[in-house]
Amino acid sequence: xxxxxxxxxxxxxxxxxxxxxxxxxxxxxxxxxxxxxxxxxxxxxxxxxxxxxxxxxxxxxxxxxxxxxxxxxxxxxxxxxxxxxxxxxxxxxxxxxxxxxxxxxxxxxxxxxxxxxxxxxxxxxxxxxxxxxxxxxxxxxxxxxxxxxxxxxxxxxxxxxxxxxxxxxxxxxxxxxxxxxxxxxxxxxxxxxxxxxxxxxxxxxxxxxxxxxxxxxxxxxxxxxxxxxxxxxxxxxxxxxxxxxxxxxxxxxxxxxxxxxxxxxxxxxxxxxxxxxxxxxxxxxxxxxx
Amino acid sequence: xxxxxxxxxxxxxxxxxxxxxxxxxxxxxxxxxxxxxxxxxxxxxxxxxxxxxxxxxxxxxxxxxxxxxxxxxxxxxxxxxxxxxxxxxxxxxxxxxxxxxxxxxxxxxxxxxxxxxxxxxxxxxxxxxxxxxxxxxxxxxxxxxxxxxxxxxxxxxxxxxxxxxxxxxxxxxxxxxxxxxxxxxxxxxxxxxxxxxxxxxxxxxxxxxxxxxxxxxxxxxxxxxxxxxxxxxxxxxxxxxxxxxxxxxxxxxxxxxxxxxxxxxxxxxxxxxxxxxxxxxxxxxxxxxxxxxxxxxxxxxxxxxxxxxxxxxxxxxxxxxxxxxxxxxxxxxxxxxxxxxxxxxxxxxxxxxxxxxxxxxxxxxxxxxxxxxxxxxxxxxxxxxxxxxxxxxxxxxxxxxxxxxxxxxxxxxxxxxxxxxxxxxxxxxxxxxxxxxxxxxxx
Lengths: 290, 443
Hints:
The complex is a heterodimer of chains A (290) and B (443). Chain A has 290 residues and is mostly beta strands. Chain A folds into three domains: 6-60 and 123-146, no CATH class; 65-122; 169-279, Nucleoplasmin core domain (Jelly Rolls), CATH 2.60.120. Helices cover 12% and strands 43% of the residues of chain A. The radius of gyration of chain A is 39 Å and the shape is rod-shaped. Chain B is mostly beta strands and 443 residues long. Chain B has three domains: 6-96; 103-120 and 330-428, no CATH class; 123-322, Jelly Rolls (Sandwich). Chain B has helices at 333-346, 383-392; strands at residues 6-10, 29-32, 39-45, 57-62, 65-77, 88-95, 119-121, 138-142, 176-179, 193-202, 209-216, 218-223, 226-229, 243-247, 254-263, 279-286, 298-301, 317-322, 354-355, 375-377, 396-400, 406-411, 427-428, 434-441. The longest helix of chain B is centred in the C-terminal third of the chain and has 14 residues, at 333-346. Chain B starts with 5 loop residues before the first strand and ends with a strand. The model of chain B has no long low-confidence stretch (mean pLDDT 89). At the A-B interface, strand 4, strand 5, strand 6, strand 7 and helix 2 of A face strand 2, strand 12, strand 13, strand 14 and strand 23 of B.
């Protein structure tokens, strides 16, 4: 075919443009086709999409719609019906009725003027859709997981939770009554409390011969306690504790059991606190009415 | 000479009886557009008292058979003219399917509800996807691990999907990890397996909701059809953090949490895919007893009792999974449009309309294909826009009945006998019939 265009496809995908020459050998006049495909996230998919569009933009190809003026036709058609009629170069082909215009033209007589599309056009359109499905992994457009998304449209506030800072406590020369205290500046939820016995270089100590009890005090009042079984170098329990800003929080050793001062010599204890935010958030805290 | 008669019948209105074969003049026309409302226009003599007000329907008959039905939208009436032949009305309107243009797309839970998405996505985010085949999730283990369980008793099995690690800032000690299936012998789920989540949430009171969630490896969360969070991209790792979505404006007590998690490959070289489970955790709070994130305020969670029926023990969740390359769970066009249609009728629109298709079968009595590509813009798309857009997307053909308010629809390109009925039933238009053809290049 000597006429028509030499198409250069440019796929405008999510992060750039992919250029595809539909036929390097073509000498026809060039025409750029800009295909907007924001649902495509990778250059590879953009390339696949462009290549797959190539049949639609073959050099010299001429997809078209055909409007027909009918004369004395005994037949009546509806949209979607198949008709065999003239194509661009006067040959015949099966085509599909895409729309009809029906006119009252002479003393109450009707005339239908359909527009038909070629079978190729129909198939090409269908191909386009299938390609879109392929290019997106049957995923319904752009994959929402590929963008860091915070929904402003629906006015819903989203954010990553940060664990409130709660210093790791560590002390040595353990004896009953020893402890540490802090005054809290934020509402904090204690999720996990991990107690570790180790020596100064950090080697776990596993030879304590009796339970050690740690007592938690809030504003000076003993609230609860944890018993670390004998021989355990590390012990983790759930905190289940909501600490309010301004409270004094103290952990002390309630009992070392039958462990002697000699047993405890050189033993260092470290307490780690896993924490979580304790209040819902600023906006919602205004909404609560007890 | 083969002739077809063209007749326009005006339907009865509140003030006028039906007028069969209304006195329309030559030049009247109507357009039957594909999955759209084609226009019509006719001129009618009004001297006989013919009223052609907006909203009156007209049926165009060819050889006595209804061929199209339209609704009058813009009559131009000349009641007074010295020249009596000018006492006419030039009536324009569109195919009766234009009535779908009179109602806009509502949010999934209806107008005047909150929260709302700006687009109705007919995919896993939608509250009313067909989830009849979804299952109860598998509990993989608690989010937290300690030497004693949260009640102070001995620890139990299963141990933990994430041994020894939990998301930073996760507030609820009783939360658990879910996935649609148990891990394989290598403690893993297939790479790029996707899990989909659903929970119908019954609130204790109409008050703000806080959702906290995370997924291993990446996940999204929806609420009432709105995408409220889409997780973290690699090289970020989502499950080491918790994300909170604060939903301040709430209407009604019934809401829907939806989500999707994807188990990606590990970021380090792991050819045998070992210790790479997928996992999802979610907990919801309301301010029931205080403003704090404490147990009394929890209304739902993923936890150790997915089959318990108690949302506080992890009950009420449904899930399904898809492996790499499998299509997303979706809607049939029939189901998606039925939901929009029923919403419109519930709001008093589209009176008298029925659908000639259902969730499973189209108007050709062929099964619909499911797709996750369908969407509709809330408040800006009319239902006719939806009909047009889904046709343009290659999903369906939709058209109105020529004689009734019935909407027909079938798979794309299958309206009529071109692609549907057997070859040979078509029409030949050759030398004797065609006066002229005109091609328009589409490129």
